[in-house]
Design brief:
Blueprint: H1 2-11, H2 17-34, H3 37-53, H4 58-77
Helix pairs in contact: 1-2, 1-3, 2-4, 3-4
């Protein structure tokens, strides 16, 4: 999981934001369904660190976090 998410985060740009975000959101939903706090912590930590160390794309990471939160909330409400 970590390797695939790292690969997606490395490719994140404004031009491919929707496509890459879809992949990361898909991972977030898999993690949510698996009820794994360790995996969720890993995902959050990865996005947080990328956002800190890549100031150029910080806005993209913020939008990514919002999209993940929205999709996870939608998933929880559909149960």
């Amino acid at each position: 999981m970590r390797r695939q998410i790292c690969a997606l985060l490395n490719k994140l740009t404004a031009a491919n934001f929707d496509r890459i975000t879809d992949g990361i959101v898909s991972w977030a939903l898999k993690i949510e369904r698996s009820d794994s706090p360790v995996a969720l912590q890993t995902l959050v930590s990865m996005i947080y660190h990328w956002g800190i160390f890549d100031g150029v794309r910080v806005e993209a990471y913020a939008k990514l976090c919002q999209r993940i939160a929205d999709e996870v909330e939608r998933e929880r409400n559909s149960w």
